[in-house]
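Re: duplicated header lines in exported structure tokens

Our pipeline writes sequence and tokens for each protein into one text file. With two proteins the header for the second block appears twice in some exports. Here is an export where it did not happen, for reference. First protein block:
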Amino acid sequence: MLILLSEIIPDSENDDKSATAANDPVTEDTYEYKKQTEAELCKILGEIKGVGSIKVMVTIEGTTEYVYAEELDTDTDKDGEKTSEQYKNEVVMVEQDGRKDALVKKIIKPQISGVVIVCQGGGDANLSERVLRAASVALNLPASRICVECRK
């Protein structure tokens, strides 16, 4: 009966989630992370001599992921030669300002999958290489995932 009930409940929740996807805090966090990364990269690369005006586009893979703290309870029963174990996980809840929220253990930011940098000095091979190297180090990305082009 519980298995049947568990199959029915997620379907009704998915309908509600699709209606509120635009206001999803995870999506907002991901968008803010992308915009912040682009702004910081523009700022630092703009300081390189000869770069000129610059635009940066960062592409990301996935979304912000929250890992919640859990309590694990283990019960072991021994009955002669037979041993059985039962496990129970519960998310740790904290009360703050009169409401209960799950305790966040870790926030995992989405992976940056590529970067396009367009700058006035992008036509110069030496400058382009310096910008590429700086972006690679700043984002911990291989150079193959970064493109530097000349601005029109």
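Second protein block, exported in the same file:
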Amino acid sequence: MEHPEEKNHRLSKDNYIGFVRVTFTLCEKNKKAIFIEPSLIQIFAEILRNCCDKYNTKNWIYVFMPDHLHFILEGISEKSNLWECVVSFKQKTGYWFSKEMKTAEWQKDFYDHIHRNDEDLIKHIKYLAENPVRQGLFDTWEKYPYTGSLNYRLEELLQSL
């Protein structure tokens, strides 16, 4: 239930259906560094893949930072549902947390940015890929082991810059 002082900052869920592209950011509730093990990244990337398949979406990039996750999804059909994809991902990974890593949990909400038709996708991808560099974790995005894509080779995409 929404508190009276809280305002709904979301667009209608209809905005997440069809051929739309969105950048999402999900954060660990207490800013714990949880995304530091390759096995966890593999599990969560596979859950993301399953959710993308179920909701007809493709993944341009994901970046698992120690305490949060960024990814860009795009609908590939009129029935694609990016909202349901992300909610399903959060539910499945939240359940995984409750069974396997009880000290971790997602923040209640997540951040998103719906791309406009004229926005430059490659610039968004590059910005996300460079996040570990800006945070001082690695000197180049290519060396950061927790950046990838479920549908593309990032090296090829980012060479076009």
